[in-house]
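Table S2 (text version). Query chain:
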Amino acid sequence: MTAARFSPIPAFGALPIPDGVEVVGIPAAVGTLTALHAPARDARGTVLFVPGFTGSKEDFRTFLPLLAAQGWDVWAYSQRGQADSAAPSGIDSYRLDALAADTVEVARLIADGRPVHLIGHSLGGVVGREAVIAAPEAFASYTMLCSGPTGWPGRHQETTDTVTASGSIGMWNRDNPHTVGQPDSALTADEAFLRLRAERTSSENLLAGAEILRADRDTTDALRASGVPVLVAHGEFDDAWPIPMQQHMAERLGASYAVIPGGHHSPQLEAPEATVSALDAFLSTIH
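Corresponding structure-token output:
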């Protein structure tokens, strides 16, 4: 399926959409999942990004055109409950298997059933891993970007406590007290966007995501058994999963491994050119 078959929708928030990027709604079983699409002429393949915890498709807004310029048809979608995507009620709607089913469905829709190159960022990497294990035939390759093999007890407990007490916006207010009560005009464009995203993101999405990050089990062996080629990549300063843990995971997978110079936990924003180089180098090896 091409983007022309999807309905155009308004951009979420006021940040500008780069030239060559489309904003569309994907009609998924859960409801409309919103997406950004950067098409490429005579594309070498289709690439799909899955955003991480507290994130959305806009985390790749400026990055998509850079990868598309290398000849890839590039997509990013907001997961259920993120920003302006469909947000079903009930915390069970955000179980890992439900999130992964969305990824499989979106992958099949955007490429007319042809295998896509999947890239999962952070918690999106956990979701992507589950999707690849569930439906390996849907994916030409898989990249875990700043993501790891397991959660651990106590992780994001403060997030759970804050969201339980004051909703999704409570996390933003806790971490950005200078913005409380201020109009958008008093904030930077990025601050205004991030506050809006915090307001619109489902609290149940955050509560379920925090639990996944605490309790995710190690399915590295199942991912290797899927036979899908894997890249493990992270910024050289990534601190979300211990870097030795990510490196060991790559070794267990027999995966390609890349450290992105200058990158932290979102290298597509912090070191975009180096991230393009790392991803394109891996994707170009898949035939």
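Notes on Table S2: The chain has one domain: 3-151+217-283. Strands lie at 7-8, 22-28, 31-38, 46-50, 73-77, 116-121, 139-145, 230-235, 256-260.
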